[in-house]
Design brief:
With 312 residues, the protein is mainly beta. It has 2 domains: 89 residues; 155 residues, Neuraminidase, CATH 2.120.10.30. It contains 1 helix and 21 strands. The protein is globular.
Length: 312
């Protein structure tokens, strides 16, 4: 697999250089120079995913829609040797984050083609696509179950619990009252470039990979969950999270958790001080690889690769 990853990285780099050169040639600019005249002609490639049989790579190709002054993207596919580069999806929307099904017949991806970013599935042979979700918040972290029947993903769940138990007088119709006070009760409530952040948490869901429908919520509580990974038998999902009291004050002290899909029981597999994340399950399901480090309050840390059995 490492060889395939190197091939895909070189391939995408060559594609990016080719797209950049084409944009510069179109404007007559100097080779290797990006200026204000060529900036909006630049295209980029990202998110390569190798097919299960190792013969093809699907990736995201993006460009700038000058009329709408926004970036658009579609899915493209190429053979592992760099030949037969071709388009899988088309249109001025944002298709991204392609993930192959275990049998290589389908590709799950995100797209805003209905006006909101939702989870879709593409039939590779016919290029037909179906929309699986109709969520208020965009999904992320797509991961197919080993049998291909389910897809796990994460999505933001708003926390609407009132901060203060104060009931204001009933608001008259068409009232022109002053805006209510902004009450902040969390450490991270705003971010550069985004402004005030919505209050809530990232949860894990599963959905039927062919029919879609209402997703099943797998995690709960006032915690964020990331990187859902299926067990080899499809009965457990592993996540990285800080499921501890005052989790917001424990920045970086995440653990790997196992969630039984039948009972939704949550079991912590790691317990050290420091971040543990990115769980990956071995093909036989016996081992879990993950990254992290021991927190020693250094100004900089280098993450290491760890291996544990599926019982922690």
């Amino acid at each position: 697999m490492s060889k395939l990853l190197r091939v895909s990285s070189v391939l995408l780099l060559l594609l990016a250089l080719g797209l950049a050169t084409a944009a510069q040639s179109k404007k007559g600019g100097n080779k290797g120079t990006l200026d204000k005249e060529t900036f909006m002609d630049m295209e980029s490639v990202s998110g390569p995913a190798i097919s299960p049989d190792g013969k093809q790579i699907v990736f995201t190709r993006s460009w700038v829609d000058k009329v709408k002054d926004e970036r658009a993207s579609n899915l493209w596919i190429v053979d592992i040797d760099g030949s037969r580069t071709r388009e899988l999806t088309s249109g001025t929307w944002r298709d991204s984050q392609p993930v192959w099904s275990p049998d290589g017949k389908f590709i799950a991806f995100l797209s805003d083609r209905d006006g909101t970013n939702q989870l879709h599935v593409l039939w590779v042979d016919t290029r037909e696509a179906s929309q699986l979700t109709h969520l208020e918040q965009a999904p992320a972290g797509i991961n197919w179950s080993p049998d291909g029947k389910w897809i796990a993903f994460t999505s933001f769940e708003a926390d609407n619990d009132p901060i203060l138990a104060v009931k204001l007088p009933e608001r008259p119709r068409n009232a022109q009252w002053a805006k209510p006070a902004v009450i902040v009760n969390r450490l991270a409530w705003a971010a550069d470039g985004r402004g005030p952040l919505p209050q809530g948490f990232t949860q894990v869901y599963t959905i039927d990979s062919m029919l879609g429908g209402t997703p099943r919520q797998i995690t709960s509580g006032k915690y964020n969950h990331n990187g859902p990974e299926w067990s080899a038998d499809g009965k457990t999902i592993y996540v990285s999270s800080i499921r501890k009291p005052d989790a917001e004050y424990l920045h970086g002290d995440s653990e790997i958790y196992a969630i039984d899909l039948k009972t939704l029981e949550v079991k912590a597999l790691t317990d050290r001080k420091g971040p543990d994340g990115n769980p990956q399950v071995s093909p036989d399901g016996r081992w879990i690889a993950y990254t992290g480090y021991d927190e020693k309050n250094y100004t900089n840390n280098v993450a290491s690769l760890y291996l544990m059995d599926n019982a922690g």
